[in-house]
Write a structure and sequence with these properties.
This protein is of the alpha+beta class and 318 residues long. It has two domains: 177 residues, 2-Layer Sandwich (Alpha-D-Glucose-1,6-Bisphosphate, Chain A, domain 4); 96 residues, Rieske [2Fe-2S] iron-sulphur domain (Rieske Iron-sulfur Protein, 3-layer Sandwich). The chain has six helices and 17 strands. Strands 1, 11, 12, 13, 14, 15, 16 and 17 form an eight-stranded antiparallel beta sheet that branches. The longest helix is centred in the C-terminal third of the chain and has 31 residues. The mean pLDDT is 92. Bound molecules: FE2/S2 (inorganic) cluster (FES) and fe (ii) ion. Fe (ii) ion binds next to helix 6. It comes from Allokutzneria albata (Kibdelosporangium albatum). One of its GO terms (molecular function) is monooxygenase activity. Pfam families: DUF5914, Rieske.
């Protein structure tokens, strides 16, 4: 029986796991390493993804280390993002425990107010909210020519999309995360619960045909392209199939030596009528999306951590 061509889902009957077509011949270490080199050479303007936009509110400061720098982030009453050093310049109290007072933070220890005016050597960092993610610019850490705004991937219109952000911490460096994402060949082997029938259509363009598995026997076939707009970001664009225009952005933020936060934004887009309904129940959809991303990331983080471990010992074959 022919399956209607424009149906978003189709029956699948993948072979037993060990009987799949091996992909190791296509996954040439040199090819992936070259793509990684090209990504690492792109400018970032010294911008780092700090967190999901929704994680930072005016109710309570948010703390995170980026490249060994302790940071604190909060929002002003009108919702503007603020980021600054995370230690109080007086006696070092953690500012993630401070109180938000208007546009400023008030230190719990002795009441020093820190806001838009530089105080005792403490000064805010440039910050940018792209509607899904919060970014900070750290010029001393980045060491590049600073730019006005971060390099953002092409995204579907946020008003007609559902987005979710998942964060996973790993014992590796950002480049290990980027390398893992630039190896689409591992998809159906390493994540058989999520992907089936993966074929790399164009290795130089990282164009991949893959079926997202919904159940054992049903999947959603798509064509996706992977690219790196800047050195710590890998983006998967759905270019054909259900959800064209949707993106998965993987951002790798260095936390400290050998520690990386993977902050992954999924921005799902569809022009199907049912999708408008899904947007209304986005609150219910989001945890499911986050769960799916986390499951993949448990495996992918293990891959990135393994690469880091082998690199450290000079045993990485790639
Ligand atoms: S440590 Fe912050 S005011 Fe004293
Ligand atoms: Fe993966």
């Amino acid at each position: 029986m022919r399956w209607p061509k424009n149906w978003p889902i189709r029956p699948i009957s993948p072979p037993p796991w060990t009987r799949q077509e091996p992909t190791w011949r296509g996954a040439r270490p040199g090819l992936i390493a070259e793509a990684l080199e090209r990504a690492l050479a792109r400018p970032s303007g010294n911008w780092f993804v700090l967190a999901a936009s929704s994680e930072i509110t005016s109710a309570k400061p948010f703390g995170r280390h980026v490249a060994g720098q302790e940071l604190v982030a909060w929002r002003t009453p009108d919702g503007e993002l603020r980021v600054g050093p995370g230690a109080c310049p007086h006696l070092g109290a953690p500012l993630c425990d401070a109180a938000v007072d208007g546009a400023a933070l008030v230190c719990r220890w002795h009441g020093l107010s820190l806001g838009d005016k530089p105080t005792a050597g403490w000064a805010r960092y440039p910050a940018y909210d792209d509607g899904v993610l919060a970014w900070v610019r750290l010029d001393r850490v980045g060491g590049e020519e600073p730019s006005e705004a971060p390099v953002l991937p092409q995204r579907p219109p946020l008003e007609s999309s559902v987005s979710a952000v998942a964060t996973v911490l790993g014992r590796c460096e950002p480049e290990d995360v980027v390398f893992n994402r630039l190896d689409p060949w591992h998809g159906a082997w390493f994540h058989p619960y999520s992907f089936a029938e993966l074929r790399v259509l164009d290795a130089s363009d990282f164009l991949v045909e893959v079926t997202f598995r919904l159940t054992k026997r049903i999947g959603v076939p798509v064509i996706a392209r992977f690219s790196c707009p800047e050195p710590r970001t890998v983006v998967m664009h759905i270019v054909e199939g259900e959800g064209v225009g949707s993106v998965v952005e993987t951002h790798a933020t260095p936390i400290g030596p050998g520690r990386t936060a993977v902050i992954e934004a999924t921005i799902a887009h569809s022009t199907r009528p049912g999708f408008a309904y899904a947007r209304h129940v986005a609150g219910a959809v989001r945890p499911a999306m986050r769960w799916a991303a986390k499951r993949l990331w448990r495996d992918d983080i293990a891959y990135a951590e393994r690469r880091f471990e082998l690199r450290k010992d000079g045993r990485w074959p790639g």
